[in-house]
Amino acid sequence: MASFLDFEKPIAELQGRIDELRDTAADGALDIDAEVAKIQVKSDRMLRDTYARLTPWQKTQVARHPERPHFNHYVTGLIEDFMPLGGDRAFADDQAIIGGMGNFRGRSVMVIGHEKGDDTASRLKHNFGMGKPEGYRKAIRLVELADRFGLPVITLVDTSGAFPGVQAEERGQAEAIARSTEACLNLGVPLVASILGEGGSGGAVALAAGNRVLMMEHAVYSVISPEGCASILWRTADRAADAAEAMKVTAQHLLALGVIDTIVPEPLGGAHRDPKLAIETLGDAIQAALEELVGRDAADLRRDRREKFLAMGRG
Predict the structure, then answer these.
(1) CB atoms within 10 A of CB 186
(2) What does the pLDDT look like over 75-98, one tens digit per residue?
(3) DSSP assignment, residue 106?
(4) Which residues pair with residue 193 across a beta bridge?
(5) Are 215 and 256 in contact (CB under 8 A)?
(6) pTM surpassing 0.85?
(7) Which end of the chain has fewer beta carbons closer than 10 Å to its terminal beta carbon, N or C?
(8) Per-residue pLDDT at 253 exceeds 80
């Protein structure tokens, strides 16, 4: 059972009531089926109503849910014979940004994305999905390799932002992000980017400068986190909800603004409630985007990307 977020407390109480009834009738002496069904219908209705009117801040909380599927889950569910390729050939192998070749529904592809980790140990290993310069330089190496061999590129974006540490700055974090963005824009093969959960700042754009940008229904995508924005504007992170509203971070806002191309629907209650269905649904959306792009020549793909990003913010 998925853990509940703060705004889901009424739903959690109903589910708790169902669990109590089942525990009470565990010996089979009581027939509780009718009562459980009644409460379950109420819980499902409340869940549907709640998720139909989520605020931008609530969507941010859903996007950060620790049980939400991450890069490794999507690769396991969608990519056959995945062969990870490590290292930037200059400094180290960053574990926050992972990439490699594999087969996506019968097509050879290059897959690159952020991995946040599933538990404390793996989150520390993957630096909570916050890439360092060597991670973005690895991404550059892999997209250039894909270009050389004519492999479409799939990127899976899920990061609160690039790692902001002093050592990362010393190794050229800003330049690595800029060059990764440039490499994506200059690709002569199709690039389909998907925002899985958080799409934070340049750390996200560096892998999301694609021909098509897909975004999960309850993901968020912004130049800065709501807490960071609130700290700058109001000198307190307590107004993060106001910042999330003002920044238009949701998929619905960003589709209207032309920043993304497609909203990928999630299972009721978020991707964490049915990861398998969420992964398959995104796979279908990626396949549709690739089928539209494969076969177009390099100049056309570059022009498509250029026009897409120059059009953002106009009119």
Answers:
(1) 16
(2) 999 999 999 999 999 999 999 999
(3) T
(4) 155, 213
(5) no
(6) yes
(7) C
(8) yes
